[in-house]
Amino acid sequence: MPPSPAAVEIRGLTKTYDGRAIVDGLDLTARRGEVTAVLGPNGAGKTTTVECCEGLRTPDGGTVRVLGLDPVVDSALVRERVGVMLQDGGLPTSVRALEMLRHVSTMYADPRDVAELADRLGLTSFARTTVRRLSGGQRQRLALATALVGRPELVFLDEPSAGLDPQSRHAVWELVRELRETGVSIVITTHLMDEAESLADHVVIVDHGRVIAEGAPATLLASDSSTLTFTARPALEAVSLAAALGAGVEETSPGSYTVTGAVTPATVSILARWCADRGVLVHRLSTGRRTLEDLFLDLTGRSLR
Ligand SMILES: Nc1ncnc2c1ncn2[C@@H]1O[C@H](COP(=O)(O)OP(=O)(O)OP(=O)(O)O)[C@@H](O)[C@H]1O
């Protein structure tokens, strides 16, 4: 593959465990200076893909380039320039929080100011607590700080907001936005659709080890931007209602309905008339912008993985 101007360039990546293709010919480009969010159901292959980029797993097939480097062959160079926050923190447990951050900072030529970073992520109040005794959210924040302390050009954040309280989540989002403004490339895996929608320049949806949709959040949602949901008595004749509306109708749980397709002012009026003609009282009706979560569920289905 020729040298890549992208932060991350993956072509035809495959990774198989126990004869099962976990990553199955995946192509992904994360552009420099952008936030790329990788979404997908549990077990879709996100962490496996990201760990191939971090040099923590070796691909079975395909190519991976990170800042133009091969993460397996050029692992030392990649480590210098790339920050990694792992899903399980990956931190030693017997060291004190700030001591660890200080220690990691000494491995880099031009580290960030440890005290300032600790303050930004609210680490100061438990600076002397050992990692083992930190709460899940505190450990997450420390893991993020260790990923950022070396001023990386590219950062991989695997579910950075998982288990964080709203205050910490906002602090993390602020930091990610600030990094992006200074030209850092960021690849984030997340299950929080609002996180992806508000932070990402580019969203990549992965399922069964392949990319099934990608684009800027606004572009992904532009083609079909309204949604209508309502509640009424259970077991309405969805087929008849769908025919009247000229749209899809799904009873997502007993008495809760979602209308899929173009939602116009006429849709609301036809729905109200259809219900009135059958003596059905609509309890709650709402129209709104289609969210990334709606799109995600449409693409990946509602069954549990
Ligand atoms: N070392 C391994 N040996 C065997 N199976 C593995 C190994 N690593 C991952 N898997 C399997 O690969 C699949 C994908 O895992 P992966 O962690 O990449 O998914 P994910 O998309 O990150 O999921 P989640 O959203 O739950 O974090 C899972 O079914 C997992 O059990």
Automatic annotation (TrEMBL):
GO BP annotations listed: response to antibiotic
Keyword Translocase: yes
Keywords: Antibiotic resistance, ATP-binding, Cell membrane, Membrane, Nucleotide-binding, Translocase, Transport
Tree of life domain: Bacteria
Major localisation: membrane
CDD domains: ABC_DR_subfamily_A (cd03230)
Keyword Membrane listed: yes
Record-level GO cellular component terms: plasma membrane
Domain (ABC transporter) ranges: 8-233
Membrane topology: Peripheral membrane protein
Localization annotation: Cell membrane
Gene Ontology MF term list: ATP binding; ATP hydrolysis activity
Protein name: ABC transporter ATP-binding protein
